[in-house]
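Anyone up for a design puzzle?
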């Protein structure tokens, strides 16, 4: 039993991010763990975060949708969680996967406003509506409630549509255009971390400048949400482009390409990258190289370089017409137009995330897949 539960927690972990370019919703972890009506189980369990993440995936019809989870420090010692869960949440906090604060106050709503994502909450948020008009709109407050096929997200009023990718509040756009530095040497979110080009940079600073979470505003001053200290402006944040992997019409994963941080996409790229192998048919797996196409950003110019054995196709404006398909051979590079679709194999595509409004899947795979049916109810302390 313990084994399966830890696998579920690993699956949940893979859906936690504080990267403003990738997070699709913000939530208060200490609220979600107490949604006992979702499974009629213990007063609190971290497994409910998985149920809520699944509900978000179904809501946006997309695979592998990540959330920005925030927790008050008190959750790390919450006696209603199992000791294993407390340990896991502590590790997530240390790794910067979950933002842990002395007090949450209205940080969840602030993050939602700055990133342009909805808040997953059951609170009505009327005071927040007055203080933060951007999130106050009911459609941006989605409550996870029990449903026939697992929990569903409902907006109290309106249709509850998730805002379009990259639709940020003006203040969010301003804050997220800069890199911020916390004076606390070990700050996991805004730490100096020495030379970011060092091969060990990841071990010192868990969060790369490109993926830095948003600061909190204290009296209008950008501050560290964890330490409460004033942040220093460390320069412009590199430009980013969010791309989607779309296989047979289903968005499998989004990823970020930033200036100076190119990304390889392929069957199983060596040294990291976006690994497609698990989603490919046998024929596609034979055709697509381990590392197949390299995406890079130079200013606002997004380029693709073929690094494969069999070549890469580009379909201008996603055109299905084979006469319009452009072939890139090994080491050839091309700048991608705003609606160009890169084709690694038939129906194995990469393109800008904003091109595809829906994820194209009615029943995304669940982070709870490894959970035994009764895991939540019966899991003993
Ligand atoms: Zn800090």
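Challenge accepted. My sequence:
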């Amino acid at each position: 039993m313990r084994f399966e539960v830890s696998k579920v927690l690993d699956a949940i972990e893979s859906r936690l991010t504080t990267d403003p370019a990738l997070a699709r919703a913000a939530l208060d972890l200490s609220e979600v763990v107490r949604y006992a009506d979702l499974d009629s189980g213990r007063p609190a369990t971290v497994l409910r975060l998985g149920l809520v993440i699944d509900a978000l995936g179904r809501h946006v019809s997309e695979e592998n949708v990540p959330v920005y989870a925030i927790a008050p420090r008190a959750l790390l010692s919450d006696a209603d969680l199992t000791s294993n869960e407390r340990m896991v949440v502590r590790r997530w906090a240390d790794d910067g996967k979950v933002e842990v604060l002395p007090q949450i106050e209205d940080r969840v709503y602030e993050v939602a406003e700055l990133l342009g994502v909805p808040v997953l909450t059951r609170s009505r948020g009327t005071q927040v509506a007055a203080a933060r008009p951007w999130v106050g709109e009911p459609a941006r407050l989605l409550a996870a409630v029990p449903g026939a096929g697992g929990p569903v997200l409902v907006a109290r009023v309106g249709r509850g549509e998730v805002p379009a990718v990259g639709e940020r509040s003006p203040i969010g756009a301003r804050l997220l255009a800069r890199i911020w530095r916390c004076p606390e040497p070990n700050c996991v979110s805004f730490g100096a971390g020495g030379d970011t080009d060092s091969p060990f940079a990841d071990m010192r600073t868990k969060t790369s400048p490109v993926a830095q979470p948003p600061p909190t505003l204290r009296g209008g001053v950008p501050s560290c949400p964890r330490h409460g200290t004033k942040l220093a402006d460390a320069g412009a944040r590199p430009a980013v482009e969010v791309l989607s992997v779309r296989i047979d019409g289903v968005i499998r994963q989004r990823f970020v390409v930033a200036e100076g941080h190119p990304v390889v996409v392929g069957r199983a790229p060596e040294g990291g990258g976006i690994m497609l192998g698990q989603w490919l048919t046998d024929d596609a797996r034979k055709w697509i190289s381990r590392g197949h196409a390299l995406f890079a950003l130079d200013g606002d110019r997004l380029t693709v370089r073929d690094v494969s054995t069999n070549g890469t196709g580009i379909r201008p404006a996603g055109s299905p017409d084979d006469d319009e398909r452009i072939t890139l051979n090994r080491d050839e590079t091309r700048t991608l137009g705003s609606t160009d679709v890169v084709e690694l194999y038939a129906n194995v595509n990469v393109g800008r995330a904003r091109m595809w409004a829906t994820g194209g899947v009615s029943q995304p795979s669940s982070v709870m897949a490894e959970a035994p049916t009764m895991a939540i109810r019966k899991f003993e302390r």
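A detail worth pointing out: The first strand starts at residue 26 and ends at 28.
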